[in-house]
Design goal:
Structural class: alpha+beta
Largest sheet: 4 strands, antiparallel
Number of domains: 1
Shape: globular
Distance between the termini: 25 Å
Radius of gyration: 12 Å
Helix content: 10-25%
Number of helices: 1
Order of helices and strands: EEEEH
Strand content: 35-45%
Amino acid sequence: MERLGPALRRPDADFIAEGIYELRFRAARVEYRILYFFAEDRVVLAHGFVKKSAAVQKREFEKAASRREIWRMA
């Protein structure tokens, strides 16, 4: 991520929508996702969860988007 930034793609990361990305990794047969966004010269980790369905669920995306708005207002 440090080297590629927003250009980092599958299988390690993917663009979700509206400036929110997911970092993807697996450990001991469990799939983890960390949703993040870019702010100035930083990567802000907004929300993490264990993936249980094929796509990122709307509520997980909404948590990350909400936290991004809080970040912008700070």
